[in-house]
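Dear H.,

Thanks for agreeing to be a second pair of eyes. The structure we're designing against is below in token form, covering all 323 positions.
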């Protein structure tokens, strides 16, 4: 299954030509892309991953975070190859972008303002987020389809989306018991835990693997992408699998939570630790990062979901959550 996305993407007939012009409606107006672009500037914080998955090297990409100066994380390095797009950091520099002579600017989930959108649109057709999603809430598959349609690769984008969905389906079929279990993606910051709610990719990955979100959390879906919990009540974390998201949370602070001994997950070895790389892959949620997530997280969850503390969960062991 590891190579399914690549095999599907390369299957004849799935990457047929796409017609132009293409029309895009966004929170700032309507954009028409008249012809297949050749010089794409990617201002969305993760859209360059999808471009690379589709075989399109942007002339510039937006740096989000992480210890990778080129802005491309390890799961996308092979698709990048020897290319070195210009890396745009911090505030948008209209002068730098203009010098790149783009014929398309992808600004979905970029945080651009209406004024910035108008200025960018004077340089090249600029695509921002759709009104139904808002600026930062575009689902991973909708982003991939938008990117694919904008660069003339919508069939290829759809094929890779279908391949990822197929991988989820195969994993669910291989683990039918997960359909009767609950799972939570959580983090720890500021002295209290927080959970990611359905609608956020970190929670959605667990749901797509078959797990249910505990009812106490599922009822808040749609209110925000995450919810802070009380340090005095950890019962919402009483799930069959707890996926701790690294980043601002450290394994040491999680392990030292005063009420953690009252949780079932640490007692029964049901915790998985997402280190910086895994947390980054879950946060990107792209055509390239999601297959990488599935390659690496499924064995961890298998070890955690059995509820046997004698079965080591490698990530939890490495992070020091298991004493």
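And this is the sequence the design step returned. I haven't edited it by hand at all.
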């Amino acid at each position: 299954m590891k190579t399914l996305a690549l095999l599907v993407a390369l299957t004849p007939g799935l990457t047929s030509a796409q017609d132009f012009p293409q029309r895009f409606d966004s929170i700032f107006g309507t954009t028409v892309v008249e012809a297949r672009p050749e010089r794409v500037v990617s201002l969305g914080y993760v859209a360059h991953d999808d471009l690379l998955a589709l075989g399109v090297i942007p002339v510039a990409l937006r740096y989000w975070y992480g210890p990778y100066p080129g802005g491309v994380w390890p799961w996308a390095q092979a698709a990048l190859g020897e290319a070195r797009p210009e890396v745009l950091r911090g505030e948008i520099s209209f002068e730098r972008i203009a010098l790149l002579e783009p014929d398309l600017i992808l600004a979905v989930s970029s945080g651009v303002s209406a004024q910035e959108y108008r200025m960018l649109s004077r340089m090249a057709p600029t695509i921002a987020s759709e009104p139904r999603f808002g600026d930062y809430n575009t689902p991973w598959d909708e982003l991939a389809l938008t990117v694919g349609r904008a660069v003339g690769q919508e069939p290829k984008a759809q094929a890779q989306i279908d391949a990822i969905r197929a991988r989820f389906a195969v994993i669910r079929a291989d683990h039918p018991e997960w359909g009767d279990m609950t799972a939570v993606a959580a983090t720890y910051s500021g002295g209290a835990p927080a959970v990611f709610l359905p609608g956020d990719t970190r929670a959605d990955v667990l749901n797509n693997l078959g797990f249910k979100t505990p009812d106490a959390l599922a009822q808040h879906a749609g209110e925000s992408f995450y919810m802070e919990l009380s340090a005095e009540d950890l019962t919402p974390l009483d799930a069959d699998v707890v996926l701790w998201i690294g980043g601002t949370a450290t394994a040491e602070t999680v392990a030292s939570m005063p009420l953690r001994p009252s949780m079932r997950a640490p007692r029964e070895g049901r915790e998985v630790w997402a280190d910086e790389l895994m947390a980054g892959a879950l946060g990107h949620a792209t055509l390239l990062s999601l297959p990488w997530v599935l390659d690496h997280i499924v064995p961890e969850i298998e070890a955690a979901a059995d509820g046997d503390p004698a079965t080591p969960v490698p990530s939890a062991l490495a992070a020091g959550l298991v004493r």
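Two observations from my side: The first strand starts at residue 22 and ends at 26. The chain is about 35% helix and 15% strand.

Warmly,
E.
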